[in-house]
Amino acid sequence: MSKSANKIRFTIYAIAFIPFILLLATGVILLKYHTGAPLESTVMGWNAHYWFSFHKLTAVLSILLILLHLFVKTDWVKNLLLSKLKARFKASNIILFIVFIICSLTALCSWLIFDGANIAELLRGIHNKLGLLLIVMFVIHLWNYRKVIVSHCKELK
Fold first, then answer.
1. Average pLDDT of the chain?
2. Looking at the DSSP assignment, which residues form a beta bridge with residue 46?
3. What are the two backbone dihedrals, phi and then psi, of residue 88, each rounded to the nearest 5 degrees?
């Protein structure tokens, strides 16, 4: 792959990383409200309404950018899912992908489809637990690919 193609890929990954980190951080902050704190109480000057709005915004951005991340790696993803790839981190990548999809779907369904219904609360509870698992899987993903990430950073010089 050419140096310019690597720069484009790495730029996409770096841009996708920022809102995803914000998404994970706001998710952790929102756990305060999901565990019973009053919605008017504040964290860093914002109450639950602001944090929920910011979390939704970063979620939409993250989903779009993660899909772009996967699109850039279309052949790799296809080979991974079709078991044609003997990837070293195949299991953790598949788990990360599944957790991400289910976490996103439970959030989107509770927010867009079932908002106000009893099932929305159940979906948010599932989403909260999967969100914590997603954080763990994301850290594992970064750890697994740390040498590749460092290598890409060195290539950019």
1. 86
2. 43
3. -65, -35
Q: Which residue bears the tokens 């720069």?
A: 7
Tell me the Ramachandran region of residue 131: left when phi exceeds 0, alpha when psi lies from -120 to 50, beta otherwise.
alpha
CA–CA distance, 24 with 138 (Å, rounded to integer)? 10
Separation CA 45–CA 80 (nearest Å): 44
φ/ψ (deg, to 5) at 120: -60, -40
103, amino acid identity? C
Give the pLDDT confidence of 44-62 residue by residue, as tens digits.
999 999 999 999 999 999 8
Residue 1 has pLDDT above 80, yes or no: no
Domains of the chain, by residue range, sit at 3-155
> What's the token pair of residue 51?
């944090």
Buried b (16+ CB within 10 A) or exposed e, 52-72: bebbeebbebbbebbeebeeb
Q: Tell me the C-alpha to C-alpha distance, in Å, between residue 137 and each of 52, 94, 124, 147.
A: 23, 10, 19, 17
